[in-house]
Design a protein that fits this description.
Layout (H helix, E strand, L loop, with lengths): L4 H6 L4 H10 L7 H11 L6 E5 L15 E6 L8 E2 L12 E7 L7 H14 E10 L8 H16 L4 H8 L5 H5 L4 E4 L3 H13 L4 H12 L12 E7 L4
Parallel strand pairs: 1-2, 1-4, 2-3, 4-5
Antiparallel strand pairs: 5-7, 6-7
Helix pairs in contact: 5-6, 5-8, 8-9
Length: about 240
Amino acid sequence: MHRTFVEKWAGSGSAPYKALMKLTKGIGILTIDAFLRYYYAAKFIIPHRVLDAGAGGSSKLPYYKDYVGVVSFDLKLVSGVDVAGDIRFLPFRDKCFDTVIAIDVLEHIPEKFRDAAVTEMKRVATKRIVIHMPLQDGKLFKGHNCDLLFSRWYKQSHGRPETNTQEHLSYSYWSPSDLRARNFKLFGTYNTNVWMAHMITAHGVLYPFNIMLAWMLYTLLLRWFDKKPPYWGGIALLDIQTD
């Protein structure tokens, strides 16, 4: 996940950053990409105990969902992370969270390990698992196509690969059928053209003008095309069956 200057300067777990996020809910602070993925995914949370698996720092979920107590989990113990570890071996007891949510995490894991991660999320969840990730079927979902276009643009513009996107491309993309085969219900998120426009803006203009310009474009124009197919990624839900 791409961190803004504010996150790098203040630290995602710092008091100034939290105050800004509480005031703005990320509008004008986060990139459109980060805002939208959290804004959409948070709608599907079942309170109150939530594990943000792969948060990358202090979880942003409480800014979009009231009455949520979140544990921020990531591979490295950076600022704002409560517990560090491997998502394939979650260091929590069984059934200790209402919702486990992984936002843009599974695409950074080789496919042969993804089921292990999903199994662990099932083990510690009592009500719901929420996953957000890029998907590819060449029809309604074109995450691979968009990532490839963005990766080429970034390398031409900056003279080096964009590491997050390169990791997506180095592993296989799940399709909607892969998630449905694992009993997930799927919802599309943002439109491919919307995604590409704000990614190029965020990486093609100097901070803070990139954030301001991206928010202007989204508010005045792009939001009208948001949540229309083809989609870059999807939100997948798995409701835990209880006896």
